[in-house]
């Protein structure tokens, strides 16, 4: 938990760089807003045991039922997984990029000190789908839940 905005810094700790593929993304987070990394796994069949052990390394995993719809504009192939970044505003697929040994992150603090960090994790963020949750004004009555089938 960060008490002040100055506590939130890229000078130490683990950082993950996300670059939006869209030139002008519809929604962007501001410093201090949280985002979650979630890996969606499309099950092959009802007997599928879930994500293979070698794929579990960090983000939360959500299993999609066989034949279930994808949470993205595209599809997730059975037996495969797709990383995503999610906020309360949007959900977008994320794709890992290889980083060159010559790529570094330059961080400048308000006091003028400059830090050089190696880039260890770089992802490209695809088209945003959202909002992930229905947001209404407090004066509006809530929308009824959709009913499917009879």
Question: What report would you give on this structure?
Answer:
- This protein is mostly beta strands.
- The protein has a domain at 33-129.
- The protein contains no helices and 8 strands.
- Strands 1-8-5-4-2-3 form a 6-stranded mixed sheet, with no helix packed on it.
- Strand 4 and strand 5 form a beta hairpin.
- The model has no long low-confidence stretch (mean pLDDT 76).
Shape: globular
Sheet having the most strands: 6 strands, mixed
Q: Counting H and I runs of at least 4 residues, what is the number of helices?
A: 0
Share in β-strands = 25-35%
- The run of helices and strands is EEEEEEEE
Q: What percentage of residues falls in helices of 4 or more residues?
A: under 10%
How do the strands of the widest beta sheet line up side by side?
1-8-5-4-2-3
Report how far the terminal alpha carbons are from each other: 46 Å
What is the radius of gyration computed over CA atoms, rounded to a whole number of angstroms? 19 Å
How many β-strand stretches? Answer: 8
Which structural category do the helix and sheet elements fall into?
mainly beta
What is the mean pLDDT? 76
Low-confidence stretches: none
């Amino acid at each position: 938990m960060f008490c002040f905005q100055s506590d939130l810094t890229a000078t130490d700790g683990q950082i993950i760089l996300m670059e939006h593929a869209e030139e002008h993304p519809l929604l962007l987070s501001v410093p201090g807003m949280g985002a979650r990394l979630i890996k969606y796994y499309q099950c092959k069949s009802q007997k599928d045991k879930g994500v293979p052990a070698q794929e579990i390394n960090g983000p939360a995993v959500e299993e999609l039922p066989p034949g279930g719809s994808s949470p993205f504009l595209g599809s997730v192939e059975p037996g495969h997984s797709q990383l995503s970044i999610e906020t309360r505003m949007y959900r977008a697929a994320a794709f890992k990029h290889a980083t060159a040994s010559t790529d570094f992150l330059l961080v400048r603090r308000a006091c003028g000190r400059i830090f050089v960090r190696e880039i260890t994790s770089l992802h490209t963020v695809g088209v945003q789908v959202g909002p992930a949750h229905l947001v209404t004004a407090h004066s509006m009555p809530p929308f009824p839940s959709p009913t499917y089938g009879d």
